[in-house]
Design brief:
The protein is an all-alpha fold and 420 residues long. It contains 15 helices and 4 strands. Helix 3 runs parallel beside helix 5 and helix 11 runs parallel beside helix 13.
């Protein structure tokens, strides 16, 4: 069973990427760097290879955190990561941003631009979104807290909004301040500061940091920690992005004489999926601990992130194939069952059926992680198979034209000859 209906395959040939980037930083600083950086890559390197290498760097950063802090405890919990780890995260994220920016340029250099690259790029971005949210909260000394949960939700919401907007407007819109540009560079800076002063730096009050504690009326203002202040800033940014995305979608709907109400209803799938995860996470403490206070916190967030990647992956697929918006995802059923089971003490006044102990709850969470990973891998495999077979291309192979203008596959065959 594939994800692309046979009737929608023909739309793949009609797809062309459209994007708008209004970032001044991107235009005058980063783009000149990216234009130079892409020239360092041989034309024999496929654009998807560059994208995947960027994601591998992020995985390496994530595994560094898991190695030194498997329980996901920041300095408040007695775990101190080596300072070089945060610097490596800073460099790794900057490289990811650079690789993510030049894969499209490499695709145009090699004549490989198309829907497969769009799918692959967004698929890697969806995974990176969760991993960076976890890493950033560790660097901000937030650790296992509701701030980390809110950060995860806000980050995923921003990604969903961008995908939702692209589906309805037909183009990727990056404003004067966007997550893929300025947002990433802010996190790069956070990692560097944590590497220099340690994550506990972010617990410093903003008035203390600015040396304003003795200023007039300072005693009437909250000395909000810098990490909490960053969360407030992120919430304001989310609100701004909601209004900006809706304005662009509304304009597109009016131009095409379509309903301006229906797109708003298509935001509900994210609300529903995030609500299920929060419902599970907020279960009553029926034993010694809850997910948010245990080593299950990171596996839970990763499972949530994989389910989200499956959800937005189907949205991008609907965009490139001009198909109906996917408002339903079967992965919700498993999480909803687990959430109801965990909340049975509240809903029915009885103990859970599956999560009867900390050990059993661990089994359910890790099983959810495994199922979510399997579902997303299956989605990626089937979509790549369908697109490459239909369009006669390969995911990690650059094709060249022969003298007659026919695309050739440069992958060596078993007999050592190049196959067509």
């Amino acid at each position: 069973m594939g994800y692309i209906p046979a009737a929608a395959l023909q739309n793949l040939k009609k797809y062309s990427y459209k994007g708008v980037d209004k970032s001044v930083l991107s235009k005058y600083v980063l783009n000149p760097f990216w234009n130079w950086f892409v020239t360092l890559w041989p034309l024999s390197v496929a654009p998807n290879t560059i994208t995947f290498l960027g994601l591998c760097i992020v995985f390496l950063n994530f595994m560094t955190m898991i190695y030194y802090d498997p329980a996901y405890l920041t300095e408040k919990g007695g775990v101190v990561l080596p300072r070089w780890a945060y610097f490596s995260w800073s460099i790794g994220l900057f490289l990811y941003q650079s690789f993510d920016a030049i894969d499209g340029k490499q695709a145009r250099r090699t004549g490989m631009a198309g829907p497969l690259g769009e799918m692959f790029d967004h698929g890697c971005d969806a995974i990176n979104t969760t991993l960076e949210a976890i890493l950033a909260c560790h660097a901000l000394n937030l650790g296992r807290s509701w701030w980390t949960v809110v950060s995860q939700m806000a980050t995923l919401a921003n990604f969903y909004l961008t995908t939702w907007e692209e589906y309805h407007t037909g183009q990727l819109y990056l404003g004067v301040f966007s997550g893929p540009v300025e947002g990433i560079l802010m996190i790069v800076g956070i990692y560097a500061i944590s590497g220099t002063y340690g994550p506990s730096f972010w617990d410093t009050g903003v008035l203390t940091f600015l040396h304003l504690t003795d200023a007039p009326l300072a005693n009437k203002l909250p000395d909000l920690p810098l990490n909490d202040l960053f969360m407030v800033f992120a919430a304001c940014g989310l609100g701004f992005n909601v209004l900006s995305s809706y304005r662009n979608v509304r304009r597109a709907m009016i131009t095409s004489n379509k309903s301006t109400t229906w797109p708003i209803l298509l935001l509900m799938p994210f609300v529903a999926s995030a609500g299920i995860q929060m419902f599970w996470l907020m279960h009553p403490r029926y034993d010694d601990s809850a997910i948010i206070n245990s080593t299950l916190f990171v596996p839970f967030l990763c499972a949530w992130g994989l389910q989200f990647a499956h959800q937005v992956g189907r949205m991008i697929l609907a965009h490139v194939t001009s198909s109906r918006f996917p408002w339903w995802d079967w992965m919700w059923v498993w999480s909803l069952v687990a959430a109801i089971d965990a909340n049975l003490p509240l809903l029915a006044g009885r103990a859970p059926l599956m999560q009867t102990s900390a050990a059993n709850r661990a089994v359910v969470v890790y099983l959810t992680l495994a199922i979510s990973l399997a579902a997303y891998v299956r989605f990626c495999t089937l979509v790549i198979h369908d697109i490459t077979n239909f369009m006669g291309i390969a995911c990690f192979t650059v094709r060249k034209r022969d003298k007659d203008g026919v695309w050739q596959d440069t992958t060596p065959a078993a007999d050592g000859k190049k196959k067509v």
